[in-house]
Amino acid sequence: MDAVDRPNLACAHLVHHGSDGPSLLGSRCRHCDELYFPAARSCTRCSGTDLEAWPLGSEGLLWSWTIQGFLPKAPYDSGETEADFTPYGVGYVEMASGIKVESRLTTADPEALRIGMRMALTLVPYRVAPDGEPVFTYAFAPALPVAA
Q1: Where exactly are the structural domains of the chain?
Q2: Percent of residues, the chain, with pLDDT higher than 70
Q3: b/e map of 97-131 (b: 16 or more CB within 10 Å)?
Q4: Strand 100-105 vs strand 134-142: parallel, antiparallel, or unpaired?
Q5: Entry pTM
Q6: CA 121, CA 58: separation in Å to the nearest integer?
Q7: For residue 84, is it left (φ>0), alpha (ψ between -120 and 50) or beta?
Q8: How many CB atoms lie within 10 A of CB 59?
Q9: Secondary structure (3-state) at 5
Q10: What is the pLDDT of residues 29-70, one digit of tens each?
């Protein structure tokens, strides 16, 4: 996929878009190996300032979740109003590295979510840009079961 085919992201600095789809991008302290998401400029663990971009992957386990049932206050900028707001799931997803990432979820159905379930990174529409083009953000969706 070339740059022309990539979606317009509200959070381009958080998502790497490779040939196999999106993955999250954080940072790692080169001194103590502490991981951060979003990327940090300094380490809260060792006070180091030598951090590097670090791939966090695209799958994890749902660690905790809730349903956002009302329109968030600023700086939330989806373009929705209280009248047309649609509730959405919000959760923490534990990545393979152990870091927990806060994320929008693709479902707001409590029956479809359970702690420990496998989740896969995807992109979802977030708002519409002034030029009419959709702007996307990252979200996690329940992962399909592994084929036997």
Answers
A1: 3-141
A2: 94
A3: bebbbebbbbbbeeeebeeebbbbbebeebeeeee
A4: parallel
A5: 0.90
A6: 5
A7: alpha
A8: 15
A9: helix
A10: 999 999 999 999 999 999 999 999 999 999 999 999 999 999
